[in-house]
Specification:
The protein has 254 residues and is of the alpha/beta class. The protein is 22% helix and 34% strand. The strands form 3 sheets. The protein has a 7-stranded antiparallel beta sheet with strand order 4-3-7-1-2-6-5. The chain has a 7-stranded mixed beta sheet with strand order 11-10-9-8-12-13-16, sandwiched between helices. Residues 3-102 form the FAD-binding FR-type domain.
């Protein structure tokens, strides 16, 4: 697996909600080879944090040489990131991860919970006519529907508070979606309980399901062993950062 470390110039650092930002930066070598499901490790070299931070790749454009990441401001590192202006430079390492989403499948349903929708944007760009389900906390965080509308016109939403779409979690929308559409493949990323619930429904309906795991990681390429888990089927230890982050749901939640 080829990875690069690039000094990436920030082209855009856009506020989407008071706590969520969209960053586009110039990283042509990473953009040229990135695949849906992979991630980058980011560090602002003049910042105060020691370790790099992993972010799923929300888009990679080889033509412009840019990659896009989405981030929620939750700690010291992301608080520093939100202050960066265009022409600022960050260090970006990637693309990382051997486990990526399948892009040759038909009738794919993409389910994003919270910030887990970010890597699914890149997947939606690469497949034909995806069905998309956005599971958000509230109306403010359903901005994802606008971003996905560039790739599909079949978009469903659920909100925890019922302010938009179906009231409830992602699984509340699945009976309706399964009734209205042929679903041959599910790709999901979000909170672990949500992914586990979706994986259970996929298994009941005999639908292949891929999950993108989020784990705390120090290195990002399989050395520190801080993001391992034991596969349910193979029974071997996987490293989320290098073997994943995308796995068959049966390997994770069986």
């Amino acid at each position: 697996m080829i990875t690069w470390v690039e000094n990436a110039e920030i082209m855009m650092n856009k506020v989407l909600t008071p706590s969520i930002y969209q960053m586009v930066c110039k990283a042509p070598r990473i953009a040229a080879i990135a695949k849906p499901g992979q991630f980058v490790n980011v560090k602002y070299m003049a910042g105060s944090t020691f370790l790099r931070r992993p972010f799923g790749i929300a888009n990679a454009d080889p033509t412009t040489g840019t990659i896009t990441i989405m981030y929620r401001v939750v700690g010291q590192g992301t608080n520093e990131m939100k202050t960066l202006l265009p022409t600022s430079v960050i260090s970006v390492e990637g693309p990382l991860g051997k486990g990526v989403f399948s892009i040759g499948r038909e009738h794919s349903l993409l389910i994003g919970g919270g910030m887990g929708a970010a890597p699914l944007l890149f997947l939606a760009k690469k497949i034909k006519h995806p069905i998309v389900l956005i599971s958000a906390k509230n109306k403010e965080e359903t901005f994802w529907t606008h971003l996905f509308s560039a790739y599909t016109d079949i978009i469903y939403t659920t909100t925890d508070d019922g302010s938009v779409g179906i009231h409830g979690f992602a699984t509340a929308a699945l009976p309706f979606i399964f009734k209205q559409h042929t679903v041959g493949h599910i790709a999901v990323c979000g909170p672990t309980p949500m992914m586990q619930a979706v994986a259970r429904e996929a298994m009941l309906h005999n639908i292949d399901c891929e999950v993108s795991l989020e784990k705390r990681m120090a290195c990002g390429f399989g050395v520190c062993l801080g993001c391992t888990f034991t596969g349910k089927v193979a029974g071997i230890r996987y490293k989320v950062c290098s073997d994943g982050p995308v796995f068959s749901s049966r390997e994770v939640f069986l």
